[in-house]
Specification:
Blueprint: E1 6-8, H1 17-30, E2 33-37, H2 43-71, E3 88-95, H3 108-136, H4 142-148, E4 154-162, E5 174-177, E6 183-188, E7 195-199, E8 202-205, E9 213-217, H5 219-224, E10 234-236, E11 244-252, E12 258-259, H6 263-269, E13 278-279, H7 280-290, H8 296-305
Parallel strand pairs: 1-2
Antiparallel strand pairs: 2-9, 3-4, 4-11, 5-10, 6-9, 6-11, 7-8, 7-10, 12-13
Helix pairs in contact: 1-3, 2-3
């Protein structure tokens, strides 16, 4: 198996730009995942976010998680559990409107650090979308516009902890799924591993590299690229030791954005349009109940309703 793609973004600024762009292209087409180094977010900010996230879990989340485990009798589980994840999570919304001030038990310095971190990730997501446009040979800014809807993109972070699990062979940290949205930016623990993706029928570890940001493609980019880039099944394996931190930030289309394959790409490929047109919010409603199942039936279900979608031109920002 070839090595997991790790991209040094600093090389985009020098003579290795073409090679680096090729690496991103190959990662998008053949992996659905890649890992970024030198991505422009300071190590000081990342270290602060990690420290405060772990402190917040200890102080506010750990007790609740232990109560949940005890109430469900999970310490003594004897057979495989396939309807539950061994994770403790909360969600932050950044765009279109932040909910950060509404989350009751966040310390002020944690709120501030997360706000700054989210702003940097948003910029990185937009930079990446333009790099993808360049690789796809479509107009710069197209993907950002495709995500825009009437109020701009939806952007939020799922903050997760995966505590030590007494029976990791019987319960997943997070069951296998593809991500519904657009572009996912993950800041993961560099000491405790667990994230795996499915490639060529085998589960491959996503290496936990310090200060890296892991990127993966969501279902919406698969649709917009008419299948040139694909979202990939991934999961988190629970571990017997260590508490794995994961901050997954989802840069997604706006709820009313109409998603459909880029006409320029469909034309270029000379193959008919394979994917449906739909409103992102409708896809999310469907996904909510089918997250841990294959994505293809979701696309088929959206095809069945696409005749009702009023397809206007993509709004310019």
């Amino acid at each position: 198996m070839e090595a997991f793609p790790v991209i040094d973004m600093e090389k985009l600024n020098g003579e290795e730009r073409a090679t680096t762009m090729d690496m991103i292209k190959d990662a998008c087409e053949n992996w659905g995942f890649f890992e970024l180094m030198n991505h422009g977010i300071s190590v000081e900010l990342m270290d602060t976010v990690e420290r405060l996230t772990k402190e917040h879990y200890k102080k506010c989340m750990e007790g609740r998680f232990k109560e949940m485990v005890a109430s469900k009798g999970l310490e003594a589980v004897q057979s495989e559990i396939d309807d539950l994840d061994w994770e403790s999570t909360f969600h932050l919304r950044h765009l279109p409107v932040s909910n950060m001030s509404e989350i009751p038990d966040l310390e002020e310095d944690y709120r501030k650090a997360m706000k700054e971190f989210a702003a940097k990730l948003e910029k990185l997501a937009e930079q990446l979308l333009d790099l993808l446009c360049e690789n796809l040979g479509i107009e710069k800014g197209y993907l950002k516009k495709a995500f825009y809807g009437s109020k701009g993109p939806t952007f939020g972070t799922k903050v997760s902890s995966y505590p030590p699990c007494p029976r990791p062979e019987l319960i997943k940290g997070l069951r296998a799924h593809t991500d519904a949205g657009g572009l996912i930016l993950l800041f993961q623990d560099d000491k405790v591993s667990g994230l795996q993706l499915l490639k060529d029928g085998e589960w491959v570890d996503v290496p936990p590299l310090k200060h890296s940001i892991v990127i993966n493609i969501g279902d919406q980019l698969e649709v917009i690229t008419n299948g040139k880039y694909k979202s990939v099944m991934h999961r988190v394996i629970a571990q017997p030791d260590g508490n794995r931190m994961s901050l997954a930030s989802f840069y997604n289309p706006g709820s009313d954005a109409v998603i459909y394959p880029s006409p320029a790409l469909v034309e270029k490929e000379e193959k008919k349009q394979v994917y449906p047109k739909f409103v992102f919010e409708d896809y999310m409603k469907l996904y909510a109940g089918l997250k841990f199942q294959a994505k293809e039936p979701r696309f088929e279900a959206m095809k069945a309703v696409e005749s009702t979608v009023n397809l206007g031109p993509i709004a310019t920002v």
